Amino acid sequence: MKKIAVLAGDGIGPEIMAQALKILTALKLPLEFEEALVGGVAYAAFGHPLPAEVVELAKKSDAVLFGAVGDFKYDNLPRHLRPEQAILGLRKALGLFVNLRPAICYPELTAASSLKPELVSGLDLLLVRELTGDVYFGQPRGKRISPDGVFAGTEEGFDTMRYAVPEVERIAHVAFKAAMGRSKHLVSVDKANVLETSQVWRDTMIKVSKEYPEVTLEHMYVDNAAMQLVKAPKKIDVMVTGNLFGDILSDEAAMLTGSIGMLPSASLGTGNPGLFEPIHGSAPDIAGQGKANPLATILSAAMMLRLAFDMDAEAAAIEGAVHKVLSDGFRTGDIMEAGKTQLSTTAMGDKVVETM
Fold this sequence. Notes:
about 350 residues; alpha/beta; ten-stranded mixed β-sheet; 12 helices; 14 strands; about 40% helix; globular
């Protein structure tokens, strides 16, 4: 029996999570689910977005299935108490240093993309993002009175971008291995023409590349990478980058597929439970209205079965059902187009179960 920590979170989190659990239950697998509160709902109940008990639950589980966190009403809280700290804290506590974000444009959804169909039809991109370094975790950070310069004597904020060579090496190996299983072409994104941190990143990528002679390594500045994703996205197969750039570029890549509501992700470490979540936010403005697209969460559950439990056939069954539902013309509001049938959040989950 495999134990899964189910952390639905805020906003639309509970309703999309319910659909993923519906699909997993229908497969009749040896899975045990334990639910707990994180994010804003955990702060409201316990005074902290990531209670210590939840961290312990995650560590004792075989995998973590995560919904989404965040709510506008908590925006004025001190940063360490905001709902988003739940996901950051879990990544750190579990040592989840790599995030895998596939961006696949289903043929049925090319019209939903903001780009021309010929640019995105057949898109199958994998973005490998480093998760535990960079400005999100670098120290020192904070606010102070500026000691010098043009704005001396005024308040300033500061964050530290930093990467150690071993941090870059371990994400590099993940990316090169992923590229080996695909087209053997890896794009590494940095800003080495400006940032010392990026120069360390690039030098380390070059060093690790010598262990993967079959893989062609291409370097790309982050501003050019952002441009290429909308100019010629199918020329990129596997992209690897740091935490900050990856956060931005992965959401850009998501929109190539037609909706951020379609993309799953997996956060992995070494010997620890993986965390699987949709890449979209909690969308509190539509929570409880049955408008949310649950497919990213359902596909995250499929990634969990494949990557955490080696259940390839079961994962393929879920993915195949999602594809069939789309090809049969069923849509949620975010990917709706003329001539198709719009379904609610729950009805879409039911349709995937029925198809599966």
